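Predict the 3D structure for this chain.
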Amino acid sequence: MSDPETEAPAPKRPDRKVMARLARSAARLAAVQALYQLEMTGGAWTDVRDEFETHRLGSDVEGLRFDEPDIDLFRDILGGVQQHQVAIDQLTDRALDARWPIGRIDSTLRALFRAAGHEFLNRADVPVKVVIGEYMDIAKAFYAEGREPGFVNGVLDHMARDARPGSLPDVSQS
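Done. Predicted structure below.
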């Protein structure tokens, strides 16, 4: 007879919904990193996509573990930014101060705004609050200290209101 107090609990199976959410988050982070690399190297976006899929996603790179992403979302963001970059950059520019257009901001922020902009403009299936929350988490990961996360929040809010009018509550009527 076994003693229930000394038996190890059965290992829990990962919740599918949680695993899917984590995979989408990993895809968004990887897409921002790939967009940054694309800008820094000037290479073909398909080469950068292939490099990430072959050598980075779901593997250990320089001591860092890359979670297994939702590969379809990763491809959608990367390809969508390439296809719609002009419209995405215009959306971002409208959210930025006229003295600081998208070309003057940090490359990492530019990659983040482009990825989020694609989702605002082309992924109506993803709620605005999810897009903002996901990219805010990415901003906090890259800029743990500093004012950038607050800046990102303001720009993403403006982009969301522009891309999807009525998707967020009107704060002016409080």
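Strands lie at 60-61, 64-65.
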